[in-house]
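Module 6 notes. Inverse folding takes a fixed backbone as the condition and produces residue identities as the prediction. Think of it as a translation problem where the source language is geometry and the target language is the twenty amino acids. Below is one complete input and output pair. Work through it position by position during the lab.
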C-alpha cells in the first residue's frame, strides 16, 4: 500500500493505496501503540498508546485503523479529536475475532502526518510463570514475607498473590512495581500458611499459577515445667531443602545455631536449665540459594525452688532393730511429694512417700539389724518433677569388746556428723534392762572422741548394756538441738551358779537360794523333794525355800533332793541336782 499526501491551504488530502493488506506511511515522527487488549467482557478490545507532543500546536485528529487478520486491508474504525486521549475501545471486535491488528495516524495542519510505524496485534500471550524465591516468617512485623524475582514479560504489569486453602487458590492482593510482599493478615503461629503467585501483563494476561509455597511451621512440647523441649516442623513447601538450622535464644540473649540437621529431619530435642526462657526457630536452606525462616516458639522452664531447708534432724535407736527418724523441710515451698529413702540397697529403698502435708515425722521403722550403719536421705519433688535431696544422715552404731582387765570395756561408735549444729559432746549410759533404756544412768559424760574405755564396778550387774547419746549444739539453724541415741551394746558376765548344801532354819543361813552370775531367774525353776518323795517346794529363782511348812512349822532335820532347771542370760540352759541338808 502506498500513501500520497498533498497539503493545500490547511487542508490535507490523503490518498490510500492498499496492497496485500500492507499499509505504508511517509513519516515525520514515530509513535507506538502500547497495547491492544481483549476486555474482561470478552467482546470489546481496548487500545492504548503513548502520548506524544504536538509539534506545532495545530493538532487535527487521530485516526485509528484496524484489520481482522493479516490478509485483510486496514480500514478506519474511528477518529479522536482530543490530543490528550490515549485509549480507544473497539466495541464488539473481540466477539468477531481475536486476531485484529491496529495502526493509527496523527494529523496536523503544520507538518502533515505523523504516524505509528508498528502494527499492534491483540495481546493474548501469557507471561512466563513466576514463583516465589522464598516464603519466610518476618521477625520484625510478625507476618509472612513473600519474595520473588522479576518476570521477564515485556509488558509486565504486576503480580497476583494467592492464598491456598484446602487445595483451592484465593486471590487476596495484587502488587505493581515490587518484588516482595508482607502478609500480616494471619497469626503465623496458628498454622502453616500456603501461598501461590501469578504474573500479569498490561492486558491482564496471567501466567500459570505457581506451585504452593509455605515456610516451615514450627511447633513443640515440653516436659513437665519445660525442662526438656521437643520441637517438630513441617518441611518447606515449594523448593528442595538442603539443610535445617536450629536457632536458639536463651533469656533474651542473641540467637545462636544450636544444631544443623539433614533435610530429612523434622524434629529436635534440647534441654533447658531451671528458670531458662527460650525462643527457637528453624531456618531452611533452599536449593535455589535462598533461606526460609519458621515461626518462632517460646518455652519456659520454671525456676527450681530456692530451698532454705531440707534436713534430716536425727536418726535414733528406739527399740531393738527399730529407729526413729526426724526431719525438717521448708514449709513455705510448694513441694509436691516427699520421699524418705534408705540408700544401703542395690537401689534406694523407699521407707515412706506421700504428700508433704502428710509427712510422718517422727517416722519409726523396723529393720533387720540395728548394728549396721544405714544411710538415709530425704527427697522432695516439686510440680516440675525436680528432685531436692537433703544431706545424708546415718544411725549411730555402738560396738565394743571386753579388755584383758576384769570388768573393763573398750567402746567405739561412728559420729553423727550430719547434725547441722555440730556435735557438742557424747554421753555414755549404762543399764541392764533394754526396754527401760531411757531411765539408764550416765556412766561417762563429756566425751569428745568416738571411742572410750570404761570400767564397770557393779559386780552384781550381770548384763552391762552401754548406749551413746550424741548431744547437738543448741540451737541449730532450724531450731533446738537434738539428742541422737545409738543402739545398746550389751555384755553378759560369764554364767555361773552355786547351790548351798545346807540351811539352818533358825540360823543365819536360813534360805535355800542358788546364787550366781548371768542367770535368768524368772525363766529358771527349782523343785525340792523329801526322802519319801513328797515335793516340799517349787518355784523360780526369784523365790527361795526356808525349810518351813506353810503353817510355819519346820520340816524334820534331814537330807532333801533339789532338781534345778537353770536358764542363763547367754541363752544356755542347764540341769542341776543335789542334796540339801536342813537343820531344824
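Target side of the pair, the amino acids:
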Amino acid at each position: 500500500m502506498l500513501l500520497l499526501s498533498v497539503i493545500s491551504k490547511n487542508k490535507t488530502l490523503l490518498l490510500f493505496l492498499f496492497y496485500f493488506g500492507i499499509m505504508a506511511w511517509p513519516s515525520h515522527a514515530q509513535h507506538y501503540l502500547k497495547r491492544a487488549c481483549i476486555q474482561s467482557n470478552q467482546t470489546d478490545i481496548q487500545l492504548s498508546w503513548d502520548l506524544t507532543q504536538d509539534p506545532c500546536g495545530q493538532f487535527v485528529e487521530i485516526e485509528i485503523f484496524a484489520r481482522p487478520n493479516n490478509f485483510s486491508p486496514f480500514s478506519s474504525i474511528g477518529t479522536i479529536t482530543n490530543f490528550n486521549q490515549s485509549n480507544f475501545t473497539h466495541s464488539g471486535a473481540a466477539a468477531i475475532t481475536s486476531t485484529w491488528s491496529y495502526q493509527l495516524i496523527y494529523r496536523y495542519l503544520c507538518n502533515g502526518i505523523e504516524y505509528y510505524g508498528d502494527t499492534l496485534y491483540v495481546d493474548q500471550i501469557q507471561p512466563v510463570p513466576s514463583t516465589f524465591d522464598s516464603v519466610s516468617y518476618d521477625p520484625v512485623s510478625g507476618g509472612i514475607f513473600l519474595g520473588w524475582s522479576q518476570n521477564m514479560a515485556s509488558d509486565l504489569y504486576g503480580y497476583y498473590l494467592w492464598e491456598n486453602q484446602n487445595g483451592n487458590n484465593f486471590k487476596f492482593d495484587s502488587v505493581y512495581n515490587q518484588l516482595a510482599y508482607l502478609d500480616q493478615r494471619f497469626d503465623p503461629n496458628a498454622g502453616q500458611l500456603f501461598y501461590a503467585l501469578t504474573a500479569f501483563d498490561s492486558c491482564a494476561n496471567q501466567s500459570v499459577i505457581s506451585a504452593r509455597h509455605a515456610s516451615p511451621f514450627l511447633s513443640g512440647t515440653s516436659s513437665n515445667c519445660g525442662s526438656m523441649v521437643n520441637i517438630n516442623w513441617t518441611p518447606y513447601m515449594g523448593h528442595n531443602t538442603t539443610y535445617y538450622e536450629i536457632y536458639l535464644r536463651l533469656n533474651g540473649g542473641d540467637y545462636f545455631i544450636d544444631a544443623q540437621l539433614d533435610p530429612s529431619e523434622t524434629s529436635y530435642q534440647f534441654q533447658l536449665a531451671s528458670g531458662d526462657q527460650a525462643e527457637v526457630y528453624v531456618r531452611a536452606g533452599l536449593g535455589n540459594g535462598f533461606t526460609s525462616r519458621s515461626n518462632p516458639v517460646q518455652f519456659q522452664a520454671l525456676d527450681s525452688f530456692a530451698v532454705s531447708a531440707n534436713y534430716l534432724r536425727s536418726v535414733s535407736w528406739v527399740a531393738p532393730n527399730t529407729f526413729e527418724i526426724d526431719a525438717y523441710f521448708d514449709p513455705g515451698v510448694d513441694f509436691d511429694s516427699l520421699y524418705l529413702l534408705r540408700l544401703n540397697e542395690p537401689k534406694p529403698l523407699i521407707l515412706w512417700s506421700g504428700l508433704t502435708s502428710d509427712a510422718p515425722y517422727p517416722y519409726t521403722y523396723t529393720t533387720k539389724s540395728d548394728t549396721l550403719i544405714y544411710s538415709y536421705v530425704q527427697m522432695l519433688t516439686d510440680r516440675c518433677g525436680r528432685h531436692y535431696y537433703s544431706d545424708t544422715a546415718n544411725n549411730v552404731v555402738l560396738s565394743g569388746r571386753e579388755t584383758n582387765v576384769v570388768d573393763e570395756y573398750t567402746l567405739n561408735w561412728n559420729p553423727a556428723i550430719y547434725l547441722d549444729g555440730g556435735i557438742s559432746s557424747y554421753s555414755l549410759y549404762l543399764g541392764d534392762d533394754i526396754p527401760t533404756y531411757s531411765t539408764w544412768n550416765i556412766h561417762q559424760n563429756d566425751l569428745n572422741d568416738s571411742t572410750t574405755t570404761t570400767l564397770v564396778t557393779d559386780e552384781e550387774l550381770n548384763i552391762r548394756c552401754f548406749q551413746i547419746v550424741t548431744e547437738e549444739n543448741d540451737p541449730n539453724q532450724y531450731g533446738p538441738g537434738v539428742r541422737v541415741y545409738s543402739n545398746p551394746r550389751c555384755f553378759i558376765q560369764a554364767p555361773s551358779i552355786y547351790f548351798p548344801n545346807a540351811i539352818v532354819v533358825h540360823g543365819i543361813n536360813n534360805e535355800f537360794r542358788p546364787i550366781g552370775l548371768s542367770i535368768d531367774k524368772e525363766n529358771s525353776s527349782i523343785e525340792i523333794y523329801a526322802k519319801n518323795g513328797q515335793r516340799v517346794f517349787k518355784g523360780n529363782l526369784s523365790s527361795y525355800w526356808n525349810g518351813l511348812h506353810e503353817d510355819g512349822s519346820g520340816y524334820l532335820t534331814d537330807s532333801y533332793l533339789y532338781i534345778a532347771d537353770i536358764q542363763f542370760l547367754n541363752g544356755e540352759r542347764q540341769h542341776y541336782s543335789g542334796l540339801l541338808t536342813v537343820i531344824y
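Reference fact for the lab report: The first strand starts at residue 3 and ends at 8.
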